[in-house]
Amino acid sequence: MHHRRQLWFLSNVLAAFLGVMTPQSAVAEDQPFLTLDTTDIEPEHGHELEQDFTWASGKPLQSFNTVMGESEFEYGWSDQLQLVLAADYDWTRTRDHTVPGTSALAETRFDAVRGEAIYKATDVYFDPLGLGFVVSPSLGESVRSLETKILIQKNFLNDRLRAVVNLGGQFGAERSGESWSDASALNLDAGVSYNITWDWSASLEFNAEHDFAGLLLNGRGRPSDTTYFLGPSVQFIAKPWTALLGVQAQLPWARDSTNAPGGLDHGFSANAERFRIMFRVTWETLQL
């Protein structure tokens, strides 16, 4: 009898220890990436406020700094459909180093209002693979675009390890001065995230963007720039708040299909920043 009590006590202590030490599995609405979307959307009637800031810097022959912001409201229309309304804005400061004495130019502007719908076709927690689709129109004073994505997600290790791929395209028009020009882009984004503890997770994110002058949809798109970014991010959860911080660097694999003078600088694209730091904070509000 005494031996059985000892075994019972030890088994309960071990179970409690493992319960504390085992990293938390992913939760349905958890979004551990800064540059990718997952199929872990808001549940029905769930909603949250999200604030993003990105500081980007580093272009050849100039001083370049920009801070881009996005304020976003997410609402779970159903367990399969999430709706988003967002506002995009930025502050940019540049100074040309090729001309001595050139003054710095600074500008603050409101970029666009953006809508987004994410449809979850399959649930990664019940199906072999998570599959989702994104449609996101943007409308602003200098931009009109439509972005579409396919989301693919696979979880491992009792959902603690998540692998995500986004395949997408963006099609629209941009204004420079008084004239508008068509533009397109094809994107491949991939990332892995691991829940280290109940509160902390770490991720690695990769982004590839292929830009085109003109619209691909009508067959008039001409390749221009191709850029690649890679970097880590970390997430901390303290319900109802969540904070994410990430850093990315441009990889020296860029291509300039136009062969413009100065388009590449030691393998880096002259039209894209060298580094960017991203920060996000979200607040999970009460259900409606």
Give a brief rundown of this model:
This protein is mostly beta strands and 288 residues long. Helix content is 7%, strand content 61%. The strands form two sheets. It has a twelve-stranded antiparallel barrel with strand order 1-2-3-4-5-6-7-8-9-10-11-15. Strands 13-14 form a two-stranded antiparallel ribbon.
Written account of the structure:
The chain is mainly beta and about 290 residues long. It has one domain (about 1-285): Porin, CATH 2.40.160. The chain is about 5% helix and about 60% strand. The protein has 1 helix and 15 strands; from the N terminus they run αβββββββββββββββ. The protein has one helix at about 1-20; strands spanning about 45-60, 60-75, 80-95, 105-120, 130-140, 145-155, 160-175, 180-195, 200-215, 220-240, 240-250, 255, 265, 270, 275-285. The strands form 2 sheets. Strands 1-2-3-4-5-6-7-8-9-10-11-15 form a 12-stranded antiparallel barrel. A two-stranded antiparallel sheet has the order 13-14. Strand 9 and strand 10 form a beta hairpin. The longest helix has 20 residues, at about 1-20. It starts with a helix and ends with a strand. Mean pLDDT is about 90; it is low at about 1-25.
